[in-house]
Amino acid sequence: MDESFATLIFKDDTLTLIDQRILPAEVSYVTCKTFEDVEFAIRDMIVRGAPAIGSAAAYGVYLAALQCPDDADFKKACKFLSLARPTAVNLGWAINRMLATYEHNIKQPRAELLNLLLAEADSIREEDIKTNKLMSRIGAAVVPQKATILTHCNTGALATAGWGTALGVIKTAFYDKKDIFVYADETRPRFQGARLTAWELMEAKIPSKLIPDSAAATLIRDGKIDLVLLGGDRVAANGDVANKLGTFALSVICKAYGIPFYSVVPVSTIDFSIPDGSAIPIEERDAEEVTHVQGVQVAPKGMDVYNPAFDVTPHQNLTGIITEKGIIYPPFKENIERLERGETL
Ligand SMILES: CSC[C@H]1O[C@H](OP(=O)(O)O)[C@H](O)[C@@H]1O
């Protein structure tokens, strides 16, 4: 996808989002004029991907301030936004950053306070694009001159405010003229890989193939994959990573066959407050996502469903975690503590 496609645009007190529920069949946009619109857009995955969710939520907080001059109403609106999806830490991180701007400037005239909140939301969006390009540059160093890469879910411009995390690394390696080939798995049940990553790879003209999720294991066993690059939604202080369902299984297979396995995340996706992955809330989504495919029923009516949207990969299965502050290698806990102290790795 060329960079003219913006995942989210904010203008005239309106957040415009490319509707990721129906890409690539249709390129259409949804406008959000209230914080309730933004909450729905996040919850229904019109916008998805940890950094993109954070950026959208930041504008949702600004819209809440526009709608709610009363402090208690505003705080209630922010709480409502924070509950839209539980796993990606970027949602809470962005809301908390906006709330800090609000509290710090609460005594300013209302118009000035609103301007400062909008400026903070713009900064969060702009910083994310810069962060993605920086981590992509750092991450491209782990991509051999000739490599076949497996990626999972969607971690491109659509999952962020622009450019991408793991797919950002892949694009950077490609534009660096590395001889890469990408296998993108479909990523059931929402098909972020088949719908979104395939679209971004084709737009970028990166040599690639789409595969069923369950084909990855055989490709890894048969030595067809040199490297796995994927995203993350919340990283615990010991390096455990919550990411799209299926990540854990891929990590086990890669560990068994000695394939490098990297999560690519901005530091804003690290939750320094939780000691390990057991504390990460895992979102469970509607049964229909599994019983239906693009609205067509495939499972018998009334069949019970377990539909976790994420799983947790233990740090022991990771080769490294690529960030804009450097690559976190084992010992993960100690190196994450260095990041928390503001060091660059
Ligand atoms: C760049 S973070 C992308 C991250 O978000 C995806 O989840 P979802 O599509 O449900 O928001 C997936 O976990 C990706 O790795």
From TrEMBL:
Its EC number is 5.3.1.23. The record marks C153 as: Transition state stabilizer. GO terms for biological process: L-methionine salvage from methylthioadenosine. The active site is at D233 (proton donor). GO terms for molecular function: S-methyl-5-thioribose-1-phosphate isomerase activity. Substrate binds at R48, G49, A50, R85, Q192, N243, K244. Keywords: Amino-acid biosynthesis, Isomerase, Methionine biosynthesis. It is an enzyme of class 5 (isomerase). Pfam families: IF-2B (PF01008). It catalyses: 5-(methylsulfanyl)-alpha-D-ribose 1-phosphate = 5-(methylsulfanyl)-D-ribulose 1-phosphate. It comes from the Bacteria. Pathway: Amino-acid biosynthesis; L-methionine biosynthesis via salvage pathway; L-methionine from S-methyl-5-thio-alpha-D-ribose 1-phosphate: step 1/6. Belongs to the EIF-2B alpha/beta/delta subunits family. MtnA subfamily. PANTHER family: METHYLTHIORIBOSE-1-PHOSPHATE ISOMERASE (PTHR43475:SF1). Catalyzes the interconversion of methylthioribose-1-phosphate (MTR-1-P) into methylthioribulose-1-phosphate (MTRu-1-P). NCBIfam families: eIF-2B_rel, PRK05720.1, salvage_mtnA. This is Methylthioribose-1-phosphate isomerase. It comes from Sphaerochaeta halotolerans. The lineage of its organism: Bacteria, Pseudomonadati, Spirochaetota, Spirochaetia, Spirochaetales.
